[in-house]
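Entry 0007
Protein: Prepilin-type N-terminal cleavage/methylation domain-containing protein
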Amino acid sequence: MKSNQGQQASLFRLFQRGRTARHNGEHGFTLLETLIALTILAFSLAVIFQTLSSGIAGITRAERHGYAVLYAKSVMDRVGTTIALTEGRDVEHFDDGYQAEIIISAEEDPNRFSSQDVLNLYMVRVLVRWSAPHKGQYQLQSLKAVARK
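Output (structure tokens):
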């Protein structure tokens, strides 16, 4: 028992000596503690900035894709009205770096019953491409019919 009490007393004195050595009128953190805290702060800020940067890049990609969908729909709606529904290719350029390629090809009706059909079918493909900052493309296709002449 005496040795156990002696060990506890010596540990208590050692602990007290360490506390008094550190707090004998000096306040604040040691240089090592400050460097560790700054390192942790730097890593935390790097992770936060990376996360925000990824989020902003995702928003930009979604915005560019959204504009491409709108342009493709707009061009598709004009095919047969202001854009002639005849076989061929055409390219339209938009002000903000988008480019729409229109491809129109004749289609055979697989359900054709006679040669007296009154409709011609055309496959219309609109491919919208964009470049910077996030290169991509969007394709819209539809089958359109026009009365035979």
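Curator remark: The mean pLDDT is 84. The two ends are 115 Å apart (CA to CA).
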